[in-house]
Amino acid sequence: MPAAMGFFTDTTICIGCKACEVACKNWNQLPAEAGGIRELSGDSYDNTRKLDGTHWRHVKFIEQFDGPYNGRWLMMSDVCKHCVQAGCLEVCPTGAIIRTEFDTVVIQSDVCNGCRACIAACPFGVIDMNHVSGTAQKCTLCYDSMQVGLEPACSKACPTDSIQFGPISELRVRAGKRLEQLKAQGEARAQLYGDDPNGPLGGLNSFYLLVDNPEVYGLPKKPQLPSRNLPKSGMLSAATGAVLGLVALVGIRKRRVEEVAGAGAGGSGGGNA
Amino acid sequence: MPDTYFTASPHWSWYIIPYFFVGGIAGGAYFLAALLEWFGRPEDRPVIRTGYSLAFWGALVSGALLTLDLGRSLRFWHMLFQSNNLPHLMFKSFSPISFGAWALLLFGACAFISWYSDKTGTAFGKLMAAVGGLFGFILAGYTGVLLSVTNRPIWADSPWLGALFLASGASTGAAALVLFAPGRGATQSSLRWLESFDARTLVVELLLLIVFVVSLGTVAKAWLSFWGLLLVVGVVGAGILWPLWLHLKPAGATGGGGGGGGALRNPAVMVLLGGFLLRVVVLLASNSIEFQRVAAGAGQ
User: Fold this and answer.
1) Are A197 and A203 in contact (CB under 8 A)?
2) Number of domains making up chain B
């Protein structure tokens, strides 16, 4: 059994070149949209804007500016987190979403029927429809490359090693050292996101080093599995059904009692049966 | 910023909204027909027959809508069988969309058997009604559970949607029976029972709706929008309070069948409208929240 593989993304050294986005689209042969004419966002230098079915990598530009000169840029190459406990895999009704031998999460496009349950289940908003294939798609962590011992396209293309690929256990050690280094240099806000196997979703196989709160990067503070609501929601529905059933039965009983009483009192007062 | 705001919308809209509505009616109507099959009287037969008929056609329409909504409609059967491991069944008890697909299939089968045996006079009767009633109950409620078992704003922020949709399925099912059963010769006594059940269910639905909105906590702010207005005016006002008032109005209780006044004065029509709008606002209000994922940095 191969070791669990994944990404460690050090956002502090991302320069926003988007080489990873291009490499990802190229390797995975993801189609352009609108004939390759991209609409400009108009409020950001980032025009990709979000992960979706044809953008499996997205470099977020977080432009924290207070006036024209006072501010900073945060950049983060976002991707599927390959959660150890994956919400998408949990809800997929066709079995299209599988966990691979590398502990990554892959959507099998020939099995997916495009019901989109996984899109709503993902706590990170990673998955979306690919309108060419008619199926839900996302990063596969270049499963095809990994099977033959190659590195995923994005990390290979990253010029600053902001995206690092390898066995998760090794990446965690590397991330820990980098965190210590940043703290020693006075970056008090530095924190790892998703590295803890005892944390939310059993840890993320694509985890991050951030220098601000996760929400600033568009990441949920405490991602959760969609099934957390299942027992409660199911029980409340069943209880409501029981109450409504009872209401109906009481109504039937009441009708019978009234009609018997009516028949007893007036002889002909019962109306039509 | 609630965590559910960082997610992507599945864009379930103009196939899924009518599916949730029709599925609710079908499930609710069968559930009531099954209760009358067990505990009603021979005079209730027209209502029972209408319930089976609504359930059967409703299940057919539901299946069609669900299939059309898929990105790859011809792969609808992947929900039921393992496509790369035939003939093994595909079933996940912890995935509402999986057990919903099975519930719809089995409900459709029960509804067909009940409808057909009632038409041809075969006595399949009570046992089928019991099984189908259970599936009808699941069909009416699972849609809300399905929404709760996601990570989307509003839907996943409350566990009450399943209960709310179930109550709405029961009220719209009863309303549909009140509208259609007179055409099959339903007696006044049966219709009065249906109307009084509908009025009580509307009260339950209103309470559940209040609990649902309160349980959203800070996410309830999402209703300060067009969808919130539609919820208050369309669902609560026109779809619950107005028909309740029409039901409770002392003397001139308008019977079913659409006789006496326009649609506005017919509680059954208004209940159906409210049930439809409930699905519209719940689905589209959440779908409209897509901003946070797109605009990184907005959560700072």
Assistant:
1) yes
2) 1
CATH at B144 = 1.20.1630.10
Q: How far does A248 lie from chain B, in Å, by closest CA? A: 6
Class of domain A5-224: alpha beta
Q: Cβ separation of B71 and A91 shorter than 8 Å?
A: no
Q: Which residue of B has its CA nearest to A227?
A: B149
C-beta separation of A146 from A156 below 8 A = no
Q: What is the pLDDT of residues B140-176, one digit of tens each?
A: 999 999 999 999 999 999 999 999 999 999 999 999 9
Higher pLDDT, A265 or A59: A59
In sequence order, the 6+-apart residues with CB closer than 8 A to the CB of A246 are none
Q: In chain A, which residue's Cα lies nearest the Cα of B84?
A: A111
A120-152 b/e with 16+ CB inside 10 Å = b?
Answer: bbbbbbbbbbbeebbbbbbbbbbbebbeeeeeb
Q: Cβ contact (<8 Å) for B8 and A248? A: no
> Could you give the CA distance from residue B33 to residue B115 in angstroms, rounded to a whole number?
11
Domain enclosing residue B245, as ranges: 3-294
Hey, CA dihedral for B119, B125, B131, B133, is it positive or negative?
positive
Distance CA B215, CA B156 (A): 11
Alpha-carbon gap: A149 to the closest alpha carbon of chain B (Å): 26
Domain ranges of chain A: 5-224, 228-266
